[in-house]
Amino acid sequence: MVNLNANVREFKRKKAVIPDSGLSAHLMSETAESLSPLRSATFGALLEGFVASEPLKQKEWAHEHFDLHHYRDSRGTEVDFVLALENGDIIGIEVKATSDPRISHTTGLRKLKERVGSKWRAGIVFHTGRKEAPLGDDIFALPVSASWGGTTRHPSAT
Q1: Burial class (CB in 10 A: 0-12, 13-18, 19+), 54
Q2: What secondary structure letter does DSSP report for 70?
Q3: Which residue ranges make up each domain of the chain?
């Protein structure tokens, strides 16, 4: 476990995801129509599982080795996924089932950034829209497609 400069319990919380969102949807008897983001309470959970599966697929051949964690502190502040890089740097990831990411979606990321201090590398809010946008210092909104290389620019180039 990478030393995250925080209470270890905060980072070791388990978060179950089924990496195959199609299988998950089938097991929940969801259809394309029922999963409309405007009509489905499960769309966000399936989207989160889908986004979580991407770094797990890429972990073996990634240029930087990392561990994937979930963050939740004693006050209930959460970050969906925390990439803890081999050198100790931290990347926080939030997944939002919205096409309009907002600063309010970065609350957990900002608290995590404060918690890990100089180990913070970046925060990402993945969303269902198409636009890349900064949401503060070192925190960026990116379309979900960017999680598998669907963007051609690095977030810091925005």
Answers
A1: middle
A2: E
A3: 8-157
Give CA separation, 7 vs 1, 92, 137, in Å: 12, 16, 25
* Lowest-confidence pick of 17-26, 94-103, 143-152: 143-152
Q: What is residue 120's DSSP assignment?
A: E
Spatial neighbors of 42 by CB under 8 A, at least 6 apart, are: 25, 28, 30, 35
When pLDDT is cut at 50, 70 and 90, the band that residue 154 belongs to is: very low
**Sheet holding 139-143: strands in order across?**
66-72, 78-85, 90-95, 120-127, 139-143, 133-134
Summarised one tens digit per residue, pLDDT across range 50-100 is 888 777 777 777 778 888 888 988 888 999 999 999 999 999 999 998 999
How do the residues of the chain divide into helix, strand and coil, expressed in percent and rounded to 5? 35, 25, 45
CA dist., res. 65 & res. 86, Å (int): 5
54 vs 101, which has greater pLDDT? 101
